[in-house]
């Protein structure tokens, strides 16, 4: 099947042809990956007999898939220019991310709220990676709701919740940016991102 046709299943249709051209231009192996709870996408530079490799989780909504894809291509472009001399989300990467996002702004691929969140993220030096919560929350609004899945920040204090691996936790107070949660079986304390996806255990 034509790669653009495949990409149209995951991206906003207007964005697919350009991403297809980038894959060819950069001679990049582009993989649509299973869900990885800890990351949306991944870039690996050339190594041995392998060239550039990018993978993006299959289950992202089209806008999150596009933002993640551009994020990873900006890493690739930055590596081509600076190799290992540039910081992963440093000035060089930010500049490339901003430039590479521009064609999609011009095509008006994004809803206004996502465009605002991306612009705000790019203008905020403190937001050093895609852990920017405002951008993450804005993108999440376009997800198809999943039954029983909720983010930690929406749970009441003392609520019990379960992870995919079956471990059960109790939510405690917020400590700066993260929530203190206690694993029930071991009583060990863990810190959770406000937007970590969990399954609420009913009372």
| Number of extended strands | 9
Please give the largest β-sheet.
6 strands, antiparallel
Strand content: 15-25%
- Termini separation comes to 49 Å
SSE-based structural type: alpha+beta
Secondary structure: helix percent: 25-40%
Q: How much is the average pLDDT?
A: 89
Unreliable spans: none
Instruction: Kindly provide the radius of gyration, computed on alpha-carbon positions and rounded to a whole number of angstroms.
Output: 19 Å
What general form does the structure show? globular
Q: In the residues, how many domains can be counted?
A: 2
By DSSP (H or I, 4+ residues per run), the number of helices equals: 6
Overview of this structure, please?
The protein is α+β, with helices and mostly antiparallel strands and 203 residues long. The chain folds into 2 domains: 3-140; 149-201, SH3 type barrels (Roll). Helix content is 35%, strand content 21%. It is built from 6 helices and 9 strands. A 6-stranded antiparallel beta sheet has the order 4-9-5-6-7-8, with no helix packed on it. Strands 1-3-2 form a 3-stranded mixed beta sheet, covered by helices on one side. Helix 3 crosses helix 4 (91-106). It is globular. The relative contact order is 0.10.
Keyphrases for this structure?
single chain, SH3 type barrels, alpha+beta, 6 helices
List the helices and strands and how they pair.
Elements: H1 3-8, H2 16-25, E1 29-33, E2 41-44, E3 53-57, H3 62-82, H4 91-106, H5 112-122, H6 133-140, E4 149-151, E5 160-162, E6 168-175, E7 178-183, E8 189-192, E9 197-201
Parallel strand pairs: 1-3
Antiparallel strand pairs: 2-3, 4-9, 5-6, 5-9, 6-7, 7-8
Helix pairs in contact: 3-4, 5-6
């Amino acid at each position: 099947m034509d790669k653009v046709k495949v990409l149209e299943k995951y991206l906003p249709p207007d964005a697919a042809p350009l991403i297809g051209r980038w894959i060819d231009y950069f001679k990049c192996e582009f993989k649509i990956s299973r869900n990885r709870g800890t990351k949306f996408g991944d870039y690996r530079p050339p190594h041995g007999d392998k060239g550039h490799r990018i993978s993006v989780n299959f289950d992202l909504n089209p806008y999150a898939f596009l933002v993640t894809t551009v994020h990873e291509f900006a890493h690739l472009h930055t590596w081509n220019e600076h190799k290992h001399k540039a910081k992963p989300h440093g000035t060089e990467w930010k500049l490339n991310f901003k430039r590479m996002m521009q064609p999609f702004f011009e095509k008006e691929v994004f809803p206004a709220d996502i465009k605002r969140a991306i612009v705000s993220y790019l203008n905020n030096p403190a937001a050093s990676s895609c852990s920017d919560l405002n951008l993450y929350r804005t993108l999440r609004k376009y997800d198809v709701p999943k039954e029983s899945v909720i983010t930690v920040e929406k749970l009441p204090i003392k609520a019990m919740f379960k992870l995919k691996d079956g471990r059960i936790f109790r939510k405690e107070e917020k400590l700066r940016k993260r929530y203190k949660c206690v694993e029930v079986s071991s009583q060990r304390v863990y810190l959770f991102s406000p937007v970590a996806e969990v399954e609420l255990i009913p009372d």
